[in-house]
Amino acid sequence: MKKFHKYCMMFPLHKTTVDKLTKEMKEHGWESEVPIILFEDEILDGRHRYLASEKADVEPEYEDFQGNANEALHYVLKENLHRRHLSSQEKKIAFMAYRKEMKKLPQGVNQYTRATNTEEGPNGPSAQRDLAKTFGVGHRTVKRWDAEIEGRKSPAKSEKRQQGTDEKRQRAFAVYDRRREAGEKLTRDAIAEEAGVSGTIAQYVIGSREAEPASPLPELSMSAQQKLEAWQHKLEVDFEYRVQKGIRKWRDNMGISSLEKKIEELKKMLSWPQYAVMKKVEYNKIVKCLHPDSINNRTPDELAEAFHIFTRYKLKLINDKGEREEELRKLKGGLPRTVQEMFARKKKKSA
């Protein structure tokens, strides 16, 4: 059994691909027009086909790579990134291994890092942009990967970033306290919108405040009347907060929050311009499951998620105004119309 070259090992091995090729070779033999590429008498490219041929007991075809180590490394890079659909994590692992192997080789100009002979060096902006294009990621992603490799994260930038986060949290805390005292909604979206922060920061603030113990009265020189008024105010604020929290929990148990969310999502989707059907990340998930080269490598969970995304945009895709209005009417009709209906629904749900 032949060994795998270390350049070949930069990229992941997918068992499902090997099983599929094994089945095909058992039925039809070796039909691949592309031979297995050898370098230094080890497999440089064609690992899946080689393992499948071993399982199917089929003799594969071999061909020696004509070139040096630098050219062999970039051949593997080009072949795998061109024909395989890799996840972000798989690309990152391959990038880390590529950088490690490049350090062992004499630096020279190649089609992937044209700037390696300039004063910038292999980690300069031009070289990083070339690599970003090769790996199909953004320039910032390559910069972040390089920073992880060489530990070049700037303490000053980290400190500035943390300072910005602290300022946003302070704004969110202030908004939370004001809304709680005023008896207003303490939802993540409401706090995030008023404070001008992300939903993650708003959720952090809500969790922090809810985990805080009741704060004692300040030990100041007060009259009995002042202490009584202070306690009354605190009880009123805490009571209002607990009532609002109870209402939110009750709405969630009744399914009202879920229905309202669906209605808002549908309204938002239908308000998008005609040329915008779905988010880019959702489109990419569907394409991965439909692409002829990758459809057999998708997991059942990925296929189910793509199907769910596609069907969710049915009303946007079919361009049927009547059906859109009917779907919105059904969602609104799912909301309880009377108190009796609410309690009947809750009773049915807990049964």
List the SSEs and their pairings.
Elements: H1 15-28, E1 36-39, E2 42-45, H2 47-56, E3 62-64, H3 69-83, H4 88-103, H5 125-135, H6 139-150, H7 155-182, H8 188-195, H9 199-211, H10 224-254, H11 256-271, H12 280-290, H13 300-312, H14 314-318, H15 321-333, H16 339-350
Parallel strand pairs: 1-3
Antiparallel strand pairs: 1-2
Helix pairs in contact: 1-2, 3-4, 5-6, 7-8, 7-9, 8-9, 12-13
Rounded to the nearest angstrom, the distance between the terminal CA atoms is: 63 Å
Largest sheet: 3 strands, mixed
Total strands: 3
The total tally of domains equals 3
Helical content, roughly? 55-70%
Q: Strand arrangement, largest sheet?
A: 2-1-3
Using the alpha-carbon principal axes, give the shape.
elongated
Mean pLDDT: 77
Strand content: under 5%
- Write the H/E string, N to C: HEEHEHHHHHHHHHHHHHH
Helix count from the secondary structure assignment: 16
Kindly provide the radius of gyration, computed on alpha-carbon positions and rounded to a whole number of angstroms.
30 Å
Structural class by sheet pairing and helices:
mainly alpha
Low-confidence stretches: 109-120, 214-220
Annotation keywords:
351 residues, mainly alpha, 3 domains, 3-stranded mixed sheet, 16 helices, 3 strands, elongated
If you had to describe this structure to a student in words, what would you say it looks like?
With 351 residues, the protein is mainly alpha-helical. The protein has 3 domains: 8-150, no CATH class; 157-213 and 228-253; 256-350, no CATH class. 65% of the residues lie in helices and 3% in strands. It contains 16 helices and 3 strands. The chain has helices at residues 15-28, 47-56, 69-83, 88-103, 125-135, 139-150, 155-182, 188-195, 199-211, 224-254, 256-271, 280-290, 300-312, 314-318, 321-333, 339-350, and strands at residues 36-39, 42-45, 62-64. It has a 3-stranded mixed beta sheet with strand order 2-1-3. Helix 1 (15-28) packs across helix 2 and helix 7 crosses helix 9 (199-211). The longest helix is centred in the C-terminal third of the chain and has 31 residues, at 224-254. The radius of gyration is 30 Å and the shape is elongated. The N and C termini lie far apart (63 Å). Mean pLDDT is 77; it is low at 109-120 and 214-220.
